[in-house]
Design brief:
Keywords: Membrane, Transmembrane, Transmembrane helix
InterPro entries: IFI6/IFI27-like, IFI6/IFI27-like_sf
Main location: membrane
Protein name: Interferon alpha-inducible protein 27-like protein 2A
Shape: elongated
Membrane topology: Multi-pass membrane protein
Helix content: over 70%
Length: about 90
Amino acid sequence: CVSVTAIAIAAGAGGAVVSAPIVLGAVGFTSVGIAAGSYAASMMSAAAVANGGGVAAGSAVAVLQSAGMAGLSGAATAAVGSVGGAVGFLATLI
């Protein structure tokens, strides 16, 4: 049914956008920086070792740290919502 599909897409998109900041904080990408001893700290350490001592600008760790500190940009919100909507649609096919 079209209405069930539309609801699933909207729920997936909305859920993804709402949960993204919560998930970022839970893994250690917080509004005040990367939390010590967290999964994010492990990612940052590995990225720094692989990159000769620093985290490269534009790397996954840098982007996630930025999102954790400042929130998702408009483009990131659109991307997360799109992926969530796609997951919601795929869930209707199961």
